[in-house]
Amino acid sequence: MIGMTELKNVFESESNNSDQSTIQVDRKFFFHSMAMALKVKINNVHVGDLKLRGRGNYSVDPGKCVVQVSMAWCKSNKVELHLDPGEKVFLNAGSIFFLLAIPCFIVAWNSVFTLKRIGTTRL
After folding, report:
1. What is the C-alpha to C-alpha distance for residues 66 and 78, in angstroms, rounded to an integer?
2. Tell me: the pLDDT tens digits for 73-84?
3. CATH number for the 21-122 domain, one of 1.10.3470, 3.40.50, 2.60.40, 1.20.120?
4. Three-state SS letters, 41-85
5. Where are the domains positioned within the chain?
6. The whole model's pTM is what?
């Protein structure tokens, strides 16, 4: 459990790091592939995994970056972002309808997962 001192340090480090930008990715529920984690890549670098209904916050340098999620050989669309210092962008990782996803795993593996920008805040 995090004590008050550690919690204070977390808030201070977040407030002192206003020159960084943040990308938040939420994984929506989808029936297929529930047991597997989605891999989150920013600028082609694996930065984290999202389990079912998971959320990841990733600090990045301001400027241009590209975000994509994948699982095994299936990938989402790429989302290109232009981030300002202190900006936080919210993305949703989802999937197409379950019955369509099964044949897409085999035939059109680049269309199974979706990644959408749903909002932005600035500090």
Report:
1. 6
2. 778 889 999 999
3. 2.60.40
4. EECCEEEEEECCCCEEEEEECCEEEEEEEEECCEECCCEEEEECC
5. 21-122
6. 0.72
